[in-house]
Amino acid sequence: GFYVADKIFSSLNAGQYDPFLEIYAPNAVLVTSEETIQTNAEIRGFWGRILTNKLNDGIFTITSKQITGNTIHYTWKCTSYRGKVKDGQDTIGIKNGKVIYHYCHFNIVV
Q1: Helix (H) or strand (E) holding 29
Q2: Which of 19, 30, 53, 83 is the most exposed place for a label (fewest CB within 10 A)?
Q3: What pLDDT sits at residue 1?
Q4: Residue pLDDT, tens place only, 8-53
């Protein structure tokens, strides 16, 4: 289950959001500073909006990763023609190989 962060970034870099239905558990929750998103279908929609409206053709890179038990904390960055993320900080919880919660923090700068 600890390949999950890599799977998220592979999907983001490929511009594909359908894999999020498999990555996240059906009852997963994703929390950002702006919203709380429930269910893997809604989380798929969140990433779809990011990829099509905010970080189009982005190159997403994990800059550090720490695994503790069933929790993965990682930092990341993204470069896109619409903006950049330099401060990505996420924590995900894994159960049965799927993400059950995801705290996601990032700021997009132009």
Answers
A1: strand 24-31
A2: 53
A3: 65
A4: 999 999 999 999 999 999 999 999 999 999 999 999 999 999 999 9
Is a pLDDT exceeding 70 seen at residue 5? yes
The two three-digit tokens of residue 32, written as one number:
């950002």
Q: How far apart are alpha carbons 73 and 29 in whole angstroms?
A: 16
What secondary structure does DSSP assign to 38-93, as a single string?
Answer: ESHHHHHHHHHHIIIIISTT-EEEEEEEEEETTEEEEEEEEEETTEEEEEEEEEEE
Residue 36: count of CB within 10 angstroms of its CB: 9
The SS3 assignment for 14 reads helix
Phi, psi of 42 (to 5 degrees): -70, -35
Residues belonging to the chain: 110
Q: What is the pLDDT of residue 19?
A: 94
